[in-house]
Amino acid sequence: MYGNDFGAPEEASGGGLLGEVEAAEAALREAAARQRRGAPASDDDLAGFFAEVVEADQKIEPRDWMPEAYRKTLIRQIAQHAHSEIIGMQPEGNWISRAPSLKRKAILLAKVQDEAGHGLYLYAAAETLGISRDELVDLLLNGRQKYSSIFNYPTLTWADVGAIGWLVDGAAIVNQVPLCRCSYGPYARAMIRICKEESFHQRQGYEILHTLSHGTPEQKAMAQDALDRWWYPSLAMFGPPDGESTHSTQSMAWKIKRFSNDELRQRFVDMCVQQAEILGLTIPDPDLRWNDERQAYDFTQPDYDELMRVISGDGPCNRQRMAHRRQAHADGAWVREAATAYAAKRAAENKEKVAA
Ligand code: 3HC
């Protein structure tokens, strides 16, 4: 959570994360201003040049040679991320018509629209790797690409909208701030803007829970119930434990990922403990306690078998989420056709103008 709207100390509230985004943005500008070593001397030097650019914390750009596996990993990760933003609109969209006030409704509407925007930035970043948005959407609809496990859980009460903002967007930010320093330029640049917007999302969720947890006993119970249901799925968002993470080692060597799944999960837990205290809510983990030696909290790991079941399509809402997305895609066919026809008409008009 950023800022001090609730009297939360900046450190306790994880305020340093937005500072990290700003530092990453400055580093991106510096990297762009620094003269990157021109180009590889010959085709034999392509891999060496790629390795040097990554090593020097410069950015790989779409025109650069890159290993095929690097391209594929990026397409997988960026597409999965984009799909998550789009599918992630459903659980919260569910509450737009039932938000408890006009103000809450307007805020939630803006937030859900932001998620659509994030999906679009990310599809655009993936397209720079030589795949089209249509192909990516097909891969999602055919079940050949994934989206985040977290969006397969239901939003049962209004407090869930708060818990999604605080915990899900909070976990997303902890995971995504390091991606602002990703070695692939278009992804890193997209992440800067996304993280800034996500910080607002997290604050709005925290503020909902703060209001509920300082309201009537029933409201506080609703907030606690939401925390009880969203805590472990939020921890699972960071992915399997390091020992079972297929891609981490290579992705970290390529500086796509900067921290391992477990490192980020730990960072998230450490950040949440004091935030929960300020809310007056209890994290549902009897074994959560400060470890002086590690200077971090010990905590109970999420159920990774459950994570794998959810990822493979067997979570509480997987079928509903995909059915809804397929229906929305089919319902939007006429919009895509109209936009394509309009673009063709404009292109023909421009051609005529140039010829005249
Ligand atoms: N949900 C679904 N799939 C997951 C997952 C999760 N929470 N965690 C891991 N996986 C999948 C991986 O994609 C990989 O799939 P594969 O075997 O088909 O290739 C497999 O499980 C093994 O995991 P790895 O740890 O090896 O995978 P990664 O190195 O890719 O790490 C990740 C996983 C940390 C999620 C990484 O991909 C990442 O940082 N992605 C970008 C961020 C992202 O996609 N966030 C999703 C949430 S977006 C969001 O929350 C929107 C916001 O508005 C709320």
From TrEMBL:
Pfam families: PaaA_PaaC. One of its GO terms (cellular component) is cytosol. It comes from the Bacteria. One of its GO terms (biological process) is phenylacetate catabolic process. InterPro entries: Aromatic_CoA_ox/epox, Ferritin-like, Ferritin-like_SF, PaaA, PaaA_PaaC. GO terms for molecular function: phenylacetyl-CoA 1,2-epoxidase activity. This is Ring-1,2-phenylacetyl-CoA epoxidase subunit PaaA.
